[in-house]
Amino acid sequence: MIMLYFYYHEKRRLQIMIQLDKLQKWLQDTNTDVAYISDPVNVNYFSGYGSDPEERVLALFVFKDAAPFLFTPQLNVEEAKNSEFDSDVYGYLDHENPFKIIAERIKERTNHFEKWAIEKDNLSVFRYQAIKTAFPTASFTQDASRFIEQTRLYKTQQEIAIMEQAGADADFAFEVAFNAVQTGVSERGLVGQIEYELKKRGVMEMSFDTIVQTGANAANPHGGPTLSTVQPNELILFDLGTVKNGYMSDATRTVAYGTPSDKALDIFKVCLEANLTAMDKAKPGITAAELDAVARDIITKAGYGEYFNHRLGHGIGKSTHEFPSLMEGNDMELEPGMCFSIEPGIYIPGVAGVRIEDCGHLTENGFVPFTHTPKELKTIAVH
Ligand SMILES: [Mn+2]
Question: Is Phosphoprotein one of the keywords (predicted)?
Fold first, then answer.
């Protein structure tokens, strides 16, 4: 066990070094002096150190011509030093001005701090102004967000292995959910049972708020859970995800409790066909827009096009939603190593909603899902 633990950490340390090297090489290629990484998810991706700093400042500074450093609240410094990050960690106390200390640390490290890359998707205006005040002649025009989303697009074998484990936790959650269904239990009650069993299993965090929707409630794609209760002869939709070592799972299953209406059964059948066909057609070289169209055409031909009111899927990794976005207009070709969801849905207000979703990774041979709970309509006997 100890050897395995050591092996895992060495592999992870190596992977983080490779990722950090890519960022430094990008700075060199674009002749940028400093990258200010402010999104905690990206700080974790490039340093191995992860925490939610709340309102405090957590940042990673990477340089064209000097060693990077992590900057954390003082209370996190020891933890950060024990992470996979191999360079300096500096802290600040709550009463200190973090940007004054950051500026000092940068100036003692390098003479080059004129051209900056910042995460335009993440850095707050307040912090942008603070760093600008500390470096009044510097320019902050380079956007690190665009580079990082491209880098994170391709997952390594190690990342995929973690996401498979996250998927196994999601499959476990479905098993708990299906066993907990009975007349009168509320949507929130089902969420409680799912998350309680996950915590007992050691899963501490969901990747988003668990969705359980009974009957017509499921026609609101991201609504719920409410205090509505399970009633016979309705569909029930479960959309859930777990976090494993900083990577997400995300999957949706719709099941029948008793015998739902013919309409509900028909939209299930069409949605399943759209899901299975899109999974089958997901191959390297097809574009994101083309794959979206594969599923959308099936649903449209069946007469439900207007009720599929979102994109086919989204990328997944350290965030639940990242690149690539599987939607009309995105001509990005899908390639091996990309991880994304395939999740067609049909939502008919006042009637029922169905969504069937797996996330997976693309290989040379096709799409390999992270979750394996069967998708054919599961009927739970009324009790
Ligand atoms: Mn999803």
Answer: no
Domain total in the chain: 2
Cis peptide before 324 (omega within 30 of 0): yes
Q: What is the DSSP letter of 381?
A: P
Query: Can you name the residues that pair with 89 across neighbouring β-strands?
Result: 70
How far does the centroid of ligand 1 lie from the alpha carbon of residue 343, in Å?
A: 7
Distance 372 CA to ligand 1 centre (A): 15
Residues 121 and 51 in one domain: yes
Does residue 289 share a domain with residue 360?
Answer: yes
The crossing angle, in degrees rounded to 10, of helices 2-29 and 40-47 is 110
Contacts of 214 (CB under 8 A, 6+ apart): 187, 228, 229, 230, 231, 234, 235, 236, 257
Distance between Cα 307 and ligand 1 center (Å): 17
Tell me the average pLDDT across 233-258: 98
**Residue 341 alpha carbon to ligand 1 centre in Å:** 6
Confidence (pLDDT) at 11: 82
- pTM value is 0.93
Same domain, 13 and 110: yes
Is 247 in the same domain as 376?
Answer: yes
What is the CATH number for 203? 3.90.230.10
* pLDDT above 80 for 240: yes
Cα 222 to middle of ligand 1, angstroms = 10
Q: Are 360 and 339 in contact (CB under 8 A)?
A: yes
Structural domain containing residue 177: 154-380
